[in-house]
Amino acid sequence: MKLYIGGVYQGQEELARTENPGGEFYPDFHEIIRRVVLIEDREPREFARQFCQEHPNAIVISNEVGAGVVPMEASDRAFREAVGRALCSIAQEAERVTRCVCGIGVRIK
Amino acid sequence: MIVLVTGGSGCGKSTWAEKLVASMPEEKRVYIATMQVYDDESVRRVARHRAQRADKGFTTIECEKDLASADIPEGSTVLLEDLVNLMANEMFDGGDVERIVPALRELSRRCAHLVMVTNDVFSDGVVYAESTQEYLLKLAEINRQAAELADCVVEVVYSIPVAVKGEVPCV
Question: If exposure means fewest CB atoms within 10 Å of the residue's CB, which of A12, A39, B87, B147 is most exposed?
Answer without folding.
Answer: A39
